[in-house]
Structure formats: C-alpha cells, structure tokens
Amino acid sequence: MEKSKLQVTLRNLLITYILTGILLVVLALALYKFQLKEGQIRLGVNAVYIITCLIGGILMGKSIRQRRFFWGLLLGLLYFAVLLVVSFLLNKGLNGSMNQILTTMAICAASGTAGGMLS
User: Fold this and answer.
1) Region label for 67, one of left (φ > 0), alpha (ψ between -120 and 50) or beta (otherwise)
2) Were 111 and a residue from 53, 55, 84, 85 both cysteine, which residue would form a disulfide, CB within 3.0 to 4.6 Å?
3) What is the pLDDT of residue 2?
4) What angle is formed at CA 55 by the lines to CA 59 and CA 44, rounded to 5 degrees?
5) How far apart, in whole angstroms, are the C-alpha atoms of residue 69 and residue 89?
6) Alpha-carbon gap, residue 65 to 71, rounded angstroms
C-alpha cells in the first residue's frame, strides 16, 4: 500500500526532528566538554539545521521521486515553520532579529532543496 504524500512528508519531518534532537545533544555535550563560545554555538546550531534539512530533503526526494527539489524545499520550509511556531510558543514571542529569522529560513529551505536535488 502506497503512502500519501502527506504521510511521507510528516514521517520525514519527524525523522528530521529526531535527528535534530540527537545532534543538539551532541552539540550540548561539546559545549560542556569544550566550553564553546557563543559564536561557535550559533555555528553549531546552523550546522544542525543544514545537516537535518539536507537529510530530510534527500529522504523526501527518495520517497516521492518526482519534483524532488520542490519536495525538499517544502520539507525545509515546514521544518522552519514548526521551529518558528515552537520557538514562538516557548518564548511567548519571537526571539531574535528578523534578519536572524530570515537567515534561518533560507538555510532550512536551501538545505532541503539541495537534499531533494541530491536524492
């Protein structure tokens, strides 16, 4: 039985968030062990976004097999949207400048698209 595109998207989004959790734990351990500076932490978080959205885009492209770049882009944007909503709810407002928010969105979208194209 073939899964719907919505089911595939939700499954791959869940996988990317599980991977995000794992990579953030690794980053937290590195922070603890190496006492990283704020700039290094920000770079690490951006690397997590890139890695997870790239892998998510690859999974989407392999799952859907048509218009792979589009499905990778969609996954990256959905990843960002969930991230933004959760951050908004936890912080009771937007945390960070509009420039940071748009940069994060671009990183997620571009990584997801690249993953879709690489699949």
Assistant:
1) left
2) 53
3) 65
4) 160
5) 30
6) 9
Q: Torsion angle of alpha carbons 6, 59, 83, 46, nearest 10°?
A: -160
pLDDT in tens, 67-85: 999 999 999 999 999 999 9
pLDDT of residue 1: 52
Band the pLDDT of 104: cuts 50, 70, 90.
Answer: very high
Contact 21, 82 (CB under 8 A): no
Q: Which pTM does this prediction carry?
A: 0.92
Tokens linked to 28:
């937290």
Altogether, the residues listed in the chain come to a count of 119
Residue listed under structure tokens 């997870």: 52
